[in-house]
Amino acid sequence: MLLVLISFLGIHYFLGVQTQTVSQSDAHVTVLEGDSVELRCKYSYSRTPYLFWYIQHHGHGLQFLLKYYSGDPVVRGTNGFEAEFNKSDSSFHLRKASVHWSDSAVYFCALSAQCLRLQGELITNL
Q1: Which has the closest alpha carbon to 108: 73, 48, 67, 76?
Q2: What rounded mean pLDDT belongs to the chain?
Q3: pTM higher than 0.70
Q4: 13: number of CA atoms within 13 Å, CB side?
Q5: Measuring CA to CA, which residue among 115, 112, 103, 104 is closest to residue 77?
């Protein structure tokens, strides 16, 4: 079975004189069920950013997959997804070792300059 994973989002944030940019070069990725996949995300920001991956299945809202804001550069998320923060390459690529048909969706990479924790919930300025 062929799976189509759509990687989509280019966002520019302007905070004072600081610009944040997120880009995903893979518009469409097609893989066979059981294959591995990598969705690329590059960012431009002079400080250490807060990075996120979201998934949106057809007809549904965005769902959070994973986030990075400090610590171990490899972040494990839900359903076998993981992403690796690479500051020297300014990247946060999403990977999965074995995709399933239910992984067919639109994937969003996002960046925030701030990340606040209140009562265990993640609040961002996206």
Answers
A1: 67
A2: 78
A3: yes
A4: 17
A5: 103
